[in-house]
UniProtKB/TrEMBL annotation, chains A, B:
Secretion signal span: none
Domain HTH lacI-type: 4-58
Keyword set, alphabetical order: DNA-binding, Transcription, Transcription regulation
Pfam families noted in UniProt: LacI, Peripla_BP_1
Record organism: Hymenobacter defluvii
Keyword presence, Hydrolase: no
Name recorded for this polypeptide: LacI family DNA-binding transcriptional regulator
Keyword Transcription in annotation: yes
SUPFAM superfamilies: lambda repressor-like DNA-binding domains, Periplasmic binding protein-like I
InterPro entries (alphabetical): HTH_LacI, Lambda_DNA-bd_dom_sf, Peripla_BP/Lac1_sug-bd_dom, Peripla_BP_I, RNA_pol_sigma_54
Gene3D superfamilies the record matches: 3.40.50.2300, lambda repressor-like DNA-binding domains
GO molecular function, one term: DNA binding
Length: 338, 338
DNA sequence: TTGTACGCGTTATCAT
DNA sequence: ATGATAACGCGTACAA
């Protein structure tokens, strides 16, 4: 059984292809009776319009592309939920591409979008990305694009972020208030602006409290979790004074838990830990993890909304449409004072 | 700047469209020099072939559709990782659709696939699904389809599952060995075959130990976590003898943790808990959760491999290509004997 | 080795 | 109210 097309419907009904097409799109110029006949047969034969023919003709793909580092990550999977919801509301389809934090792969993916496969793009940068020329080329082609979370500052488009500087400051402040004086900061990447902002918040908070940041207490995580745990263990051993850890991403907090356990450091008695995290069950950890939770779902949704506003109204996206949402610090036992 | 197409390249080079087309596909009938010229200009102008025109012409979309209940779920996000990897290896694109466990939405999505938008489908059923006719229609159209995890037994196609009966038996056995005599079983849905198998394993294990299963100890979870926690609390209160919980999915285990905490039941002293789960950090929970971990990534990968074998060789998928992978019981403190 | 012509399925324009 | 026709961009059979 082959896919049914307009021609077959037309033949069956002794109508022209164009009449059938119009009947199906509920055009006002078609009589009610023909409409009914056509639509009934279409339903009966399970007719589905060929989306590629339609895309070719209309120069619209009804598809958006989502480019993210990983999907097995609470933040991104929640964001996808938000994106998918808005896409469905607009009868759009969602193509997912994973960069695995590899700039080269990201470039390949984005380059492909010059083909017209998607009407718009939602992207969160690979940690490695330093050269943004692949994105610029898309801008020249006027393909609307919204960045979320791991944004590219330089681009004249909308970006959905959270108040990373403030959160970084607040997290550090929280540890200081809890009595920590030697706070390590674990970051993801040297290149991401959100990482830089969180770092700057950390540095400023320390200095505001009369403390001199110690570069030895900064650790760049890798993509390998075992390696990260080892690095953190070494950090803790080489700097026994460390009494607080501020992790920029969830996995680094988890590696810190394992490192502490391995070294016999108690949380929060010996080391207090706070982390950016969208772990739903932070409360069920041992000990419960104090988190800065980003509104991941809302970020995905807002990014998608802005994108669709542009696609549907055929207007360029302006940087002024950017939004900065608020993260929430949720205090739990991992930073409790004894 | 408009998307570049073959016509423009042809004009620029004083060649015909077909020559350019052939040069780009590295056809043997084109001279090396023209090929070089064409390819250079194509690169220079950032030419990307229009995938929709190509799909229309070739009747191939180079796209697969993935239909799953949720993405914010460790099992499914890991599976997507596996799927995406295989898709990328084959230069295919991945469309993601979420059913949110709603059979109606699933039917709508699947129905749309009759349009030819995808060359193949990977699906994991919505918990609610009872009527499978939407899938049958696709089979009539010979669109290759592989089910994974939440499979539909009735279909003559490949299914990737885990040894759910054995795991259900083993999980129950594990609790029995730990001394439990009143074991509750929390399931997702009455309709999913994997749920039925796990349940059967549970029932058989009980009976093999001379215990009579008590229907009052079976609880069907909902899609609402708070509601689930309430239900579990009621279950525990109405059946104070319960000393073991076997959860069929991770969220029900987490709700059980919260329920126990709320009621002051200690884990594992008062109640031991075991659950199907792909939580990476089960070990960091309080107490660490004994899990049956499914090879989610591998399942996605294998399902995708089978699908691509069919797509690329243009052969139907046979039920004999089905695979049953092994889950692993990882014993942790939540089922420890005191 | 290259060019011409057609068709994939749909939609939009122009006629009747 | 309906039909004929062209075009979207690409790939291929056939011609030259």
């Amino acid at each position: 059984m082959n896919p049914v097309n307009l021609k077959q419907l037309a033949q069956e009904l002794n109508l022209s292809v164009s009449t059938v097409s119009r009947a199906l799109s509920d055009s006002y110029e078609i009589s009610a009776t023909t409409k009914a006949k056509v639509q009934q047969l279409a339903r009966q034969l399970g007719y589905e319009p060929n989306p590629y023919a339609s895309s070719l003709r209309r120069q619209k793909s009804k598809t958006i592309g989502v480019v993210i580092p990983e999907v097995a990550n609470n933040f991104f999977s929640l964001a996808i939920n938000g994106i998918e919801e808005v896409a469905r509301e607009n009868n759009y389809h969602v193509l997912i591409y994973l960069t695995h934090d590899d700039a080269q792969q990201e470039a390949t993916i984005v380059q492909h979008f010059a083909s017209g496969r998607v009407d718009g793009i939602l992207a969160s940068l690979a940690g490695e990305t330093q050269d943004f020329s692949h994105f610029s080329k898309l801008q020249e082609r006027h393909i609307p694009m919204v960045f979320f979370d791991r944004v590219c500052e330089e681009f004249a488009t909308a970006k959905i972020t959270t108040d990373d500087y403030r959160s970084g400051y607040q997290a550090t402040q929280h540890l200081l208030d809890a009595g920590c004086r030697h706070i390590a900061h674990l970051l993801i990447s040297d290149h991401l602006s959100i990482g830089q902002k969180r770092l700057q918040g950390y540095l400023d908070a320390l200095q505001a409290h009369g403390l001199t940041p110690d570069p030895a207490l900064l650790l760049r995580g890798t993509s390998n979790k075992d390696r990260n745990q080892t690095l953190i263990q070494e950090l803790l051993q080489q700097n026994p004074a460390i009494d607080g850890i501020f992790a920029s991403v969830e996995t680094l907090a988890m590696s810190s838990y394992l490192a502490c356990r391995h070294l016999g450091r108690r949380i929060p008695e010996d080391v207090k830990i706070i982390s950016f995290s969208n772990l739903e069950i932070a409360d069920l950890l041992d000990p419960p993890l104090t988190t800065i939770a980003q509104p991941a779902y809302e970020m995905g949704r807002e990014a998608a909304r802005i994108l669709f506003k542009s696609i549907l109204k055929n207007r360029p996206i302006l940087p002024t449409q950017s939004q900065e949402l608020k993260s929430t610090l949720i205090q739990r036992k991992s930073t409790a004072t004894t």
